[in-house]
User: What shape does this take?
Amino acid sequence: MNWVEPGLYHYLVIAALLFCLGLLAVLSRRNGIAVLMGIELILNAANINFVAFSYYVTHELGGHVFVVFVILLAAIEAAVALAIVFAIYRHFHSVEVPNVNVMKG
Amino acid sequence: MKFIDVLRTVGFYLFALMTVVPAFIVVLSRNIQRSVFALLFTLFGVAGLFLFLHADFLAATQVLIYVGGVLVLLLFGIMLTQKMVGGDLRSGKIQFIPTLVAMVILFSFLLFLIFQTPWHSKGPADFDQTTTAIGTLLMTQWVLPFEIASILLLAALIGAVSIARTRRTSE
Amino acid sequence: MTPEIIHQIKISIPYFVPELMLSATFILVLIGEVLTKRSTYTGFGIITAGGLIATLFLSVQMYKLPETSIFFRMMVVDQFAIFFKIIFAISAVLIVLFSMGSRELRKYSAGEYYCLLLAVVLGMNLLASSTNLLMIWLALELVSIPSYLLSGFLKDDKLSVEASLKFVIYGSVSTAIMLFGLSYLYGMTGAYEINDLRAAISTTHMNSVVLLMTVSLILVGVGYKIAAVPFHFWLPDVFQGSPTAITAFFSYGPKAAGFAFLIRFFYGVFAQGGPDYHVVGTFHWPTLMAMIAAITMTVGNVVAIWQTSMKRMLAYSSIAHVGYMMMGFVLLQQQGIQAILFYLMVYMVMNLGAFLVVIALSSHMDSDNLSQYRGLGSRSPFAAAILAMFMLSLTGIPPFAGFIGKFYLFAAAIHAKFYWLVIVAVLNSVVSFVYYGGVVRRMYLEEGSREAIPVPVLSRALMIVLAVAVLVMGLYWSPFADYSQRSAGILFENISLAFR
Assistant: This one.
């Protein structure tokens, strides 16, 4: 097949790349907000998958509906996570996860 | 190839780059403000990719909610917790390299999976504007998730406000 | 909107009444919170408990209806689902009662607390019933997100806020990873409903490596929720920091819901051509499940020994019990599932009972440290005796219910010919006696302060109820065993019907 013209595989590769980058951010960044950004990357990767599959494989809009809800939930999770981050910041004056570690064991 | 196809291909690669390159910056940059702005570009890039996949409603939703909502929220978070001068990765760096290696391995594995699977691709779909169709689906087949999502929104709203606000004087 | 669609929605509603009742209670509490100036945990608690009891009643009514899938095959209301609805409602009522007696929550708004709790219960109900991937994922988020907020509800307490930060970060990551797996599943099969998935996987030539990867990603999400190793790291911190009533809730509700989803998903999608998941490639899944079970229970039990905080000890204890329950999951067989369901009933009573005593005593203790329990035998003989009983039941000593529960799980593992797993589990139970027994030892054999701890009458009554339940289930367990068998059996009838 012609590899230059965009096809299903191109989208899947982009999504896989975003997934790995997001996971890398989650695992290696210390800043809570950076981890949140990594989560958004993972969710976007899943979204690209859904829409690409909708377009090339299933030819129906179920994937699109999924994405609507994922975007919705991403917004909700971001709001909740940031609310908690504010609460944290009031106490600890830092959002670096290693600094926020009173509990051990 | 016709000119329109060339244009389409070039456009796709532009948006693909706009999605992927800033993603690297998001992950690797030490400056958190730079990370957030890079994320902005990634999210726009994804919206562009949605357009190439004939997902017009989703592209608009992505821009409105992800960029207009989530990103703004992240910016507020960063501005209001200003002590972050993008932590130095010094003690993090020890864990960084193995994680990076693990992610490279994972990515190769995913690539292998992607190219190995018979995806039963039927070729490009023929979607008209999707907004009406999605709207109908949300009210008919997918009505239950739609309603449950509204309860989730309400609960999250209540809880988030409850946790984030400074305590009013108790009754 | 065509007539068929309206019709489909209309006939679905009667099956949805328990959830509607939960939503109505949610809204009622919310409106009450907005309108009243003084919100008390008792007042709103009674409303919430009332709503939950109504939900329980309605759930039982569901048995009269023929089972069917509703709302365009988003969810199904069968005996398996109703079983979970009932235990969720009962455990939620208990948690509400715990919350009413909890001192640490007093400063904070009651209405919001109960709203969040109701939202989680609604999510749990949906998770046990759902058959559509989006609905499952949404239900999982409905269980998780209010939980993040509940765990940080004591916002003036550093530990609570820290717990919720860790919870929200790890939780969001795991649901995101699970979503990525779901996206591949959608792409491979074009389906998002469990029956369709099963059909697609059996008929199409499926690359087993991809299926393995997809299922692994999904397992990451669920494994986090039930806190199986290696996804258990969030649990001890979240348990320690959260308000104790919420810790009690987390120790049971979401885990049970996670198991409900796990069972329905795996049995629904993969149970064909034999009980050993063989359709998911040549990878030997039963062994993987058995190893996860063994590692989880061992980590839980061994680390619990070192704990000095009661809540953390109970956290690791709950990890261990999840490990025991996973023994029932090793093979796709009815006996294993029945054992899990039975254990869920037993575990609810003894685990929540232990938490009840902890909460009742906590108002008079300076800290959560285990040393506070010294000499409890003389300070508060009634509570100490009850707590001792729950501790022994958790260890698995007859004649308490915990013994019977473990017995069924062991029997299921033996039936699956995983003898090494049973030996590991027995050893683990012996090891668990070190820390459960440690509590008993502190209470009776060590000296603490002299002052007596009064236990309120209502708490006493509740303790008696739970203690009696533990004894009854330990001595006269057949009705419960039959009940769990009938609830589990329905899954298998469906599958064999589908193949006819």
